[in-house]
Amino acid sequence: MDNRPIGIFDSGVGGLSAVRALMRRCPQESIVYLGDEARMPYGTRNRETILRYAREDLAFVLRHDVKAVLVACGTVSATALEDLRRECPVPILGVVDPAAAEAVAATRNGKIAVLGTAATIRSGAFPRAIAKLCPQAEVLGVPCPMFVPLVENGYIKPGDPAATLFAREYLEPVRAFGADVIILGCTHFPVLKATIGALVPQTVLIDTAKSAVAALEAALLKKGLCAGESGESSQFYFVTGGKEGFEGVAERFLGERFDGEVEVVTLS
Amino acid sequence: MDNRPIGIFDSGVGGLSAVRALMRRCPQESIVYLGDEARMPYGTRNRETILRYAREDLAFVLRHDVKAVLVACGTVSATALEDLRRECPVPILGVVDPAAAEAVAATRNGKIAVLGTAATIRSGAFPRAIAKLCPQAEVLGVPCPMFVPLVENGYIKPGDPAATLFAREYLEPVRAFGADVIILGCTHFPVLKATIGALVPQTVLIDTAKSAVAALEAALLKKGLCAGESGESSQFYFVTGGKEGFEGVAERFLGERFDGEVEVVTLS
């Protein structure tokens, strides 16, 4: 039993979908969240810069005595996780491998689609992770650049006309390809799950944040690191950008009135 | 007569609407363009950081022996232009004051709407510039956060359904307010001018890039700095982000097949 918090970091607010998933699945766990909005988006930086930012983010959450780290940033998970793993004294997970494993387990016809940011699709991280588990699976990556701005600007009601318009466009190649499983390969996208799901009711949608949290729970159980059931859990949010903008968007992700403690910090 | 180039800089690609306007209005003028995509968006940074970035951008274009500088970045124009002006040895203009002057000249009922990014609207730069020229004018600022991603992802055909959906939403308060002049207060927005204009046919739309170029031409004429009519003009583009992404988006702004020379550079 270990009541230390879990560290979660992201380049911005997207990682809050992992916070939401963790609070629902393991309500006894405390959380230290870092959202590095001042330097987002990571996806447009080169690999060296991403690694440097990721190391600073990791060092920050480690200073808060965390027992495990969830890298809730697709870009960092896709490009820098192996380096971080070598340097991290506690268990560390990303959002790519757990979702890939769940997709491989769920597909019946071996056709998996990945919806992601342009950077994530270009990185090829999901096809690589899937190929390691199931070389014969076919993977179609679809860049969905409008989904992040839609979520960040509040077009999130199930069936929202604007979100539906773009979802229809992005799902067209997915239908033509015949995927029976779709990975929502960006931590912003679960916020649009109902809108997307309504257009492809026969398809399994995989939420990378939920998959990662399930894998994290399994890792904690295995190592005897779970928090006690009776303990009081806490959530601390550190942001490098503005506090107000963060709180507004946090409600969209957490699906309830946000009343977490938020502190603005500067990373070296 | 002066055949040295004009320096134009922006935090990304938006300033290309100023390049387009300048190439059409003054085809004999050569251009050195800097798009600092690696550090965009500027709008989310604090004032000190914006000023530091702007100084580095300015120093870069000045090293290319320019005879005048157009700051095609709304954020820099709104927050750092006075500092830059004190430090710049050649004439320097932004995109706020010329558009404000044109709006004041065009309005009949004294009601001016400004469409901009959230950061530009929050800065209050347009209302301030308008108030200096015409204290009794009423100004309504409308943040339009979806327009930039729409333009950058190609939803730019006149009457595009997605762009129309958002334009309708953003123009609703403008109609209720009764503005007879709308400033397209972001250098991305002129790309959507036809889509926006179709929804408000009785309203004058002011393109900040065109206004700024007209003011620039006036300044060059006044100081005898115009290029010779017979000279060969050239355009050089420097970008701090990726070359390919830039070229793709450049076509959307310049409205033709882009064949400019692009070089990737690093700013300290």
| Secondary structure: helix percent of chain A | 40-55%
Distance between the termini of chain A: 34 Å
Order of helices and strands of chain A: EHEHEHHEHEHHEHHEHEHEHE
Overall spatial form of chain A: globular
Write out the strand line-up for the largest beta sheet of chain A, numbering strands in chain order.
4-3-1-2-9-10
Q: Main interface pair? A: A-B, 16 and 16 residues
Strand content of chain A: 15-25%
Q: What would you report as the Rg of chain A, rounded to the nearest angstrom? A: 17 Å
User: Tally the helices of chain A: what do you get?
Assistant: 12
CATH first level of the largest domain in chain A: which class?
Alpha Beta
- Quaternary structure state of the chains depicted: homodimer
CATH third-tier fold name of the largest domain in chain A: Rossmann fold
Q: Which structural category fits the helices and strands of chain A?
A: alpha/beta
Q: What is the count of β-strands of chain A?
A: 10
CATH structural architecture of the largest domain in chain A: 3-Layer(aba) Sandwich
Task: Round the mean pLDDT of chain A to the nearest integer and report it.
Answer: 93
| Low-confidence runs of chain A | none
Tally of domains of chain A: 2
> Largest sheet of chain A, if any?
6 strands, parallel
